[in-house]
Design brief:
By secondary structure, the chain is α/β, with parallel strands linked by helices. The protein is globular and about 50 Å long. It has one domain: Alpha-Beta Barrel (TIM Barrel), CATH 3.20.20.370. Strands 1, 2, 3, 8 and 9 form a five-stranded parallel β-sheet that branches. A four-stranded mixed β-sheet has the order 4-5-7-6, sandwiched between helices. It is built from 13 helices and nine strands. About 40% of the residues lie in helices and about 10% in strands.
Length: about 300
Amino acid sequence: MIQVAISDDDITVGKAGKLLELHRFHEQFGIPVSYFIIPFPRTEELSISQDTDLQRALDTIRADGSEAHPHSHRHHPFEWGYPEIIGAMEFSEGLCKAFADHRFSIEFYHDKDRMLQRMVEVVEEWKKFSGEESVGFRPGWGSFSCTFYEVLKECGYKWSSTRFASRASWHRSKGYPSEDVINPHVGLNPYLQNGLIEFPILGDFGFHAKRSDGPELVALFKKQFWECLEANAPAVICHHPHGLDSDDVDPGSGYEIYSEIFEWLIARGDVEFVTMSKLYDTWKDKDLSERLPAFDGTDLFIDY
């Protein structure tokens, strides 16, 4: 059996209805989902612990076997380090300009004490919202740094799901050409980073995609799924409500693409759909390799 973890990012204040809509969509396939919820949305004055509708929706999905974990602080792209540049920043011209023009402010933002303060706020807010302490975390925008992993450990987290095993799905769903290769600096298998288990994200195969791109994206998923099988690795999918809706390009296309993927996985008969917590329970006692942050000059001095 291969474990497949379906996760969803970006539910937040005012999105209780959307959370329940997503829950109903996955329920028709009998799939539990791990929802990563933004505690302090940038566009709202309220936090998630003040949204009683969202708390009730959380109770509903939990009762049916799904779960939730914190997703960033305010979902700022530079909250926890730098996004995987080619994987996220080129989607936003404004983000690229901020990276170029506000570098000193970003570095100020990355001071460890400030980062730790933000994470403590997340921990406290999450407990008020959910009544529990989460041991898992996912940043926004794939943003990470050495300091980020240090802060996670100091705040009691046991795992994160941050890095992109492949950037192909993100690029192709947005119409960018991309090789369907696994990033050798990340890989498919879970590994240790500063003592925490990192669960690489395979991709989002319906991220603001057009229906006409569906066959290519489904084929890409199947190819990378086979690579997970060969590597004895789990497959972690990360989709987004706005990506599934795809209102900006082709309304509802993401749901159709994922329906085809889910039906194919179910028909195989060798797939166990699990939450991220179940995935952690499966891998926590395995002998995993530690990825030590290291300087490798060959990575920096390349032909541009």
